[in-house]
Amino acid sequence: MHCVTRVELSVCCGNLLDRDVTSKSDPFCVLFNEVDSSWVEIGRTETAVNNLNPVFGVKFKVDYHFEEVQKLKFALFDEDKCSSQLYEHDFLGEYICTLGVIVSNKKLHRPLTLANSKPAGKGTITVRTSCLYTSFPQRNPRTKNMSTHTHTHTHTHTDFFGKSDPYLEFHKQGDDGKWMLVHRTEKSNTADVRKSVHCVGVKRGPSGNFLLCVLLLQIEFECINPKKQKKKKSYKNSGIIILKSCKVERDYTFLDYILGGCQIMFTVGIDFTASNGNPREASSLHFINPLGSNEYLSAILAVGQIIQDYDTDKMFPALGFGAQLPPDWKVSHEFAINFDPTNPFCQGVEGIAQAYSVCLPHIRFYGPTNFSPIITHVARFATQALQQETAAQYFTLLIITDGVISDMDETRHAIVQAAKLPMSIIIIGVGNADFAAMEFLDGDSSVLRSYTGEEAVRDIVQFVPFRDFRNAPKETLAKSVLAELPQQVTQYFKQRNLSPSNTASE
Questions:
Q1: What is the four-CA torsion angle of 261, 388, 385, 439, rounded to 10 degrees?
Q2: Which domain holds residue 472?
Q3: C2 domain: from which residue to which, for each copy (predicted)?
């Protein structure tokens, strides 16, 4: 389900360069985002007069998209003239990063640099993030679920031959002042309506009006029909609505969990089976072309460049399967591509790419194509996270493969078990093989079952064939494979009734 999340960025700075002779600098901050390799201005703060440690009151509002690399630049200038042209003002320093880095840190404190990448003196910038809202189709932003149990007793008959068939409608007022229906109870063939409903506000109904405020709750509400009230002086009400109970619950979004400190733990699994071809030959899917790339590397970089922003230490395990390893040349389906089984971590996505390139000449491609060992490997760590009392960790496994799965029954079983854990699996198929089995594991068309008949409690697999994106912009692949991840994260934590680790974002 597509959603739009809007965040607010607050900026303050410290120890800015002093460009004025007789006074201190008068700084203001400009925010840019990168569009087609060019910087486009988003907005500017006010000017802080004679202040090298400004706390800007103007906030930047930006649409946040998890599945995109959103590159931002904060640039500081000393206002010298009454001009909107930035070249008319002295440059004080800048900081460039992605929006993903900002939201995953919530409060980001970094040094400023000059255009030549040298330090801007001792200047620093601090960016704080808050979520303004997340809006979904047919849903108002940042709603809170209010579970209420109501008992409605009406004594005004609107039917000619019998009693009324009453029902309740609950509406929420939007920012534009308009009312939107959020729930309607079933009709009752009596004058009493006894219902438990989920609502976020109420509006006028055909029999009468009442307004429910979550902060000022009352026990009973009169249901008023304005037309009858005008016609009859003796009219009191059309019935009584009795609120039996009310429970207000926060509807946490993916960004709430990220701002609360949830880390996305990223692991890569790479297929080194013989069907990929000899990596020294140009026909091989593992052949690294003169541009230094292939489909495996492209997939790693496309997904990794986004997910790495959500793990503060950026240390990622990278595993291989289906290859014979030195010195005894035994087949392994779960080996560290840096050949250090005690420490399979690589520094960032670039570290994964480097370890992958280095290991290619030192292994022999073999087979078969078994997924279950790597899925079980990551699941062991995700199982440890079951002890967490808040939403602190979520595990994502990226598997890149060229062909048909050999251990389908074991893989189905491993996925069904992993669906109970804070874990998702992304599969990218490279080459032109038949990926029908991968589509089956995706579970979009039917519920995945293990060979024992056990159903997956949720869909955690997303599969895409790389060939569908060969001629598309590189960002398109990441958008496709990561589109379902935020929903899978929130679904898991909500099923477990886990709140963000730090709910200060409320």
A1: -70
A2: 257-315+325-331+363-496
A3: 1-112
